[in-house]
Amino acid sequence: MRRIPRSVFRWTAFAVVAALIVITVVLVTRPSSTGQQVRTQEKVLTLVDGPAGKRAPVAIDTTLYLPEKTPAPAVMIAHGFGGSKRSVDADAREFAAQGFVVLAWSARGFGRSGGTIELNSPDYEVEDAKQLVSWLAKRPEVRLDGPGDPRVGVTGGSYGGALALMLAGADKRVDALAPVITYNDLSQALLPNTGSTGAMPAGTPAAGPFGADGVFKRAWAGIFFASGMGGGGDAGSSGPEAPEPGTVSGSSDAAAGGDAAAPAPAPSTGGDTAGGDQGGDAPPAGATGGPCGRFGLDVCKAYAEVATTGVPSAETVALLKSVSPVSVTSKITQPTLLVQGEQDTLFGLDQADANARQIAAAGGSVKVIWYAGGHDGGRPGPQLREEMRNWLAYQLDKRGTDPGTGFEYAVQGALRAQGAPSVRVVRAPAYPGLTGAPVQRQAMAMSGAAQTVINPPGANPGSVSSLPGLSSVLAGAGGRLSGRTSIDLPGQSAIFSGPTLDEQLLIAGSATARLDVSAMPGLPPSKTGAVLFAKLYDVGPDGTRILPGSAVSPVRVPPLPVNGDSVKVTVALPGIVRPVESGHYLSLVVTTTDQSYATPLEPAAYRIALADDTIAVPVVPGTNVGGPAPVGPVIGIIVVLGIGVLLVLAVALRRRRSGRPDPELTDVPLVIDGLTKRYPGGLVAVDDLSFRVDRGQVLGLLGPNGAGKTTTLRMLMGLIHPTGGTIKVFGQEIRPGAPVLSRIGSFVEGAGFLPHLSGADNLRLYWAATGRPAERAHVHEALEIAGLGKAVNRKVRTYSQGMRQRLAIAQAMLGLPDLLVLDEPTNGLDPPQIHQMRSVLRAYAATGRTVLVSSHLLAEVEQTCDHVVVMHRGRLVAAGPVDEIVSGGGEATFRVDRPDVAADVLRGISGVTGVAVDGSAVHAELDGTPRSVAIGVLVSAGVAVEQAGPRRRLEDVFLQLVGEDS
Amino acid sequence: MTEADESVHTDPAAIAELTDAARASHLGAGASGAVEGYRARRTLRLHVELRRQLRRRRTQLLYGFLVLLPFLLAVAFEVGSSNPNRRSGGFVDLATASAPNFVVLTLFVSGTFLLPMIVALFFGDTIASEASWSSLKYLLAIPVPRHRLLAQKALASAVLSFAALVLLPLVAFLVGLVSYGAGEAVTPTGDAVDFPTALAAIGMSVVYISIQLIWVAGLAMFLSVLIDAPLGAVGGAVLVSILSQILEQITALGSLRQYLPTHFAFSWSDLIATDIDWTNLAKGTLSALIYGLVFGTLAFRRFTTKDITS
């Protein structure tokens, strides 16, 4: 009766555990995913833009993403150069899922929008964006600050980031902006000059002097221009993501793998994909064609000029400045989040630094984040994107906690054996030098004699620092690999080295060095000034050189005095974040060539020395944010361990319920009542079996093979579960593991020994496993009974069947159990051994113990046992003392030559009844008359008696039962 | 009948001895019905089970192989070494940089197959081999309660597995120390982890590997109670491990792969670094514990309710 509730309990417990585990897995592996339904509306708007007097309509392709709840604040997402509104689709959906109305649009000259690329010109792209803000103000889904003034934030990567800055400067209706990996001054980004003969700008960590007459960054400019022409590239929105703290390695290498397979050298970052998205999103007919592609004529001419001469005209510089955020940053007062990449040779940290300085000076509040990506290292990963969304959610909707105006920078750690490198984030209270104290600069000694470097004719061969486009592929494999690709050529490089560090130096920003450059007397110096490239290497103890961020600082030194007098120049070394480990040292290398830049072609030679024997290295102390600590998994671990403990407790509690003994049966070795074992499929092995064994008996369980004897004994040992009925041993009900089993010694269906141990060791270890006191085992006596002689010290695997059997019986006798259960103990023994076994069992029972023997042989039971239980097909056939059952009372059988005569004679004896003839045998109930008397009467009557004995009624029945089995 | 059998007989004196002993001692029974001296919590104690397992040839061979393996690797590097710069490249190239690097390599090369196999062997074999020797029923008839039998078997297997997981890096460390000296551990990026830190990292790595392999232990244990053939249980667990590693190679599965039990098998290499990122280590621990708990519970359920017929 108890079985049903118990199994229900089990299944319930199991289901609860399974459910808990599933919930844990789901909670841990899928953190906050709001999963909102996002609706989109695509629409081509006709806007009017252009300078005064030349205003013309332009078709702008837009998509509006609507969250579940409106009205809501709006976010405008501008795409990168070469992309379209489709390349920001994933970002837009993430924003919309967080409850923003999102507007994405293809800028002029990209995607399906009309017009030409004017590089974020205030008259064109910025004007378009302003009109989009006005359009948003008319949408009922957008929350308004006032009439015609929507609550709106602007974000975007690279080209789109610059638009965000330009728009915020031009339109006060913009409430917050989050530009990503973008520029401050395009003329400095494409024509940088990081050297200055004057003073460096003040206290920010990555400030560059932004000197005039920059060196043309031709490799990047070429890629930039080509992507505006609509040449090749992938249309996907997402390039590889930058590594983040705790990134699951699997997902990031999948992304990197996809990127490496892209056919074009596409610096695909933040939607700034090279090439348009031509796949199904073709520009309007007639918009392309000609050497300028979709570029506006001014832009195209300016590029052609720089690309051919390497030197920009004043108009070109003015044009580039006019379309750069630097032209409006003095008007940006809105809260600004500047996200810049540490792996970015296109728009370095100095560009974000300039933006931060200028916006802070204008009165805007600025938060700066440097992440472990960039144009060379991948777009922001999921954690950073979430941080950006939360920042905008706070600024636009006061949702969440105030993100403040702190400064965060990512530090890339060791490369892992697999997957992405590890990243930690350092958080400082503010971006140094904006409003508070200037950045700390640590003076690092540099030494090295003055060295002569040459600029080879044609600037060929050139040194290699970065591989624009390819760097992002290398970065995908683990950002720091790209830092290993740099090559400096001998004769073109002056090398200065610092001392070996004895503690880690975490460089965060742009170090400054002062150089002393002079022309070699006798060689005419270049009229355009000396072009030099300064690099800061991290050199390991084994000589491995890493160029952090693959970044170089191009310097154009004003034309050098012919007389060999030196010019002192201060160089802002590349803005980097780099932990320089103890045992490493810094190395400052100045080269004359770099393949990514347009350098003077005429040969020249310079003497380069250190003007100052230290370099000033910026350090920004902060707290180590690490990754997000793995809180989810840790909670999961605690939950799983908790479930485990609960399970163990539940099992322990259930074990405590022990059966109550039956007080009347405490002295009865075995009572079986209604025992049934039914197997699935209908086979009934034991059917309603009941019998009882008393103390001192040797009971034989007799039945043909398959009668259910072994099944009964297995149930008695608690090995298999009965379907019904009970087994009570000394009044205790048998369950698996019932303690009363310790009073039973058993040998059922074959021996079970560890083959690699000797017989004696097997018995000793078996007894040790019982945990009972060693002196109660009587191993010696048991081994004597087995009588294996010297063989007991051999491994059991060498034993014969008979030897194992004897050892198994000895094992059953260990501890001299009160009930000895032996299943077919004489199988495989030879006759003398069988004989001995019988004596052992009878002697054992004589000590007041009980023996239960199963056998399929009647003779065996007759000769060994005093009581017998006969089974057939699982049912009890007969039970009782052997004498009674075997001899069947006073009946006798006589085998005679003349049965009929003998029958008559027997009937004549007084008291003899039930005389029957069966072939040559005559059966009779003698009823007290001794058989010898009956034989005497028969013989005297002339009947020859061949044999006389008790009538074996059982045998008749048994033979019938056993049939051909015997 | 063999010659040995002919000498097998019971001396009549032995019967007398037995009956004398039996007459002299009659043990009472406690309230639970157990014979005097029997207590369930003393059955199959750990040291007994360890003695039963440690004397098996397969245990000894396995430990012997684990001792031999680092020597084989060291010899292989001696024979095949052609690169004079021993401080750059991957973990394999860095193996001869120092003793810690050699240990890292040893763990690295054995991580895919050998270590899961060791755990599968100890856990998968434990119940199934008793079943195949028919000795399981006699243990249960002692009686060792089933939950205790499984728990003690698991504990002994855990001890044996952990010993193996410690033995391998320990021998590798000694071999490395003699061959390459006590230098700092060099990671593939050239970051140097000083010697004491590297030792601690290796220690933690061994602990992590042991935890991470709990899933194999649980699975092997489950198969062990499900299948009575030891080879089936061990082989099955190893097979699942290999299958999981094959699926791991299919990058198209993307982040689904993090649900594979072997996904975090090498996360211990995060510990060999100057700044340790615990994320994957925590995830790997969680993954292993969940798999271990599920398989362990299944094994437990199955074993406590099944009919023992072998």
UniProtKB/TrEMBL annotation, chain A:
PROSITE patterns listed in its UniProt record: ABC_TRANSPORTER_1, ABC_TRANSPORTER_2
Keywords per UniProt: ATP-binding, Hydrolase, Membrane, Nucleotide-binding, Transmembrane, Transmembrane helix, Transport
Single GO term (MF): ATP hydrolysis activity
Bias type Low complexity, positions: 249-271
Transmembrane segments: 7-28, 631-653
Residue segments, region Disordered: 232-287
Limits of the ABC transporter domain: 670-898
Domain of life: Bacteria
Family: Belongs to the ABC transporter superfamily.
PANTHER family: ABC TRANSPORTER, ATP-BINDING PROTEIN (PTHR43335)
Protein name per the record: ABC-2 type transport system ATP-binding protein
Organism in which the protein naturally occurs: Labedaea rhizosphaerae
Lineage: Bacteria, Bacillati, Actinomycetota, Actinomycetes, Pseudonocardiales
TrEMBL record, chain B:
Transmembrane segments annotated in the record for this chain: 61-82, 102-123, 155-178, 198-222, 229-247, 281-300
GO molecular function: ABC-type transporter activity
Family matches, as Pfam families: ABC2_membrane_2
Domain of life of the organism encoding this protein: Bacteria
Signal peptide, first to last residue: none
Keywords: Membrane, Transmembrane, Transmembrane helix
GO cellular component: plasma membrane
Protein's recorded name: ABC-2 type transport system permease protein
